[in-house]
Amino acid sequence: xxxxxxxxxxxxxxxxxxxxxxxxxxxxxxxxxxxxxxxxxxxxxxxxxxxxxxxxxxxxxxxxxxxxxxxxxxxxxxxxxxxxxxxxxxxxxxxxxxxxxxxxxxxxxxxxxxxxxxxxxxxxxxxxxxxxxxxxxxxxxxxxxxxxxxxxxxxxxxxxxxxxxxxxxxxxxxxxxxxxxxxxxxxxxxxxxxxxxxxxxxxxxxxxxxxxxxxxxxxxxxxxxxxxxxxxxxxx
Length: 236
Known about the structure:
Number of strands: 12
CATH class of the largest domain: Mainly Beta
Number of domains: 2
Shape: globular
Structural class: alpha+beta
Strand order of the largest sheet: 1-2-3-6-5-4
């Protein structure tokens, strides 16, 4: 179905947001429905343009987890149009938002209002808590075991048991579905926690090649999806 078949009622705003989508209807009873990770490329009060690696039929109903950066919200959505990109993949889907609860609806409206005031596209970040081991270069500091708070193609925010000085060069090792993967990084900022026992939050910028960063991000998203599925979190 052509995109023009559904006239837009709300202004679309360009974004890069991580979205996890799970089919809720129609569902194939012969196989387990695995959630897909994708990217919202534009959003409005009533819908979004969702980029997925697998095409979904029109009228498919979805359970969506939309990561707004500071928090994630849940929404029911429906595929109202679909078309492949120029290379054949990924596929663009027009999603009509059908239902959000009151709290998530308020968060969505507040996010859109903030976006309208400052419509600058930034790197998407996925709120994901994954184990990470940090090893400073050239310093007699033991490996620091921590957990990420979010990840993006350009870096990560992670909580560590000890503070590292800004500009410190480190390696970060992540456990992925394909085994451990290590990448170089630099400490950009450090923020002490109000509860010291919770650790100290660090902002890291990856220093590895762009293709290596993209590969790592794909693995981390896959690991996060697997974690969500194993835990059965929020219906996923």
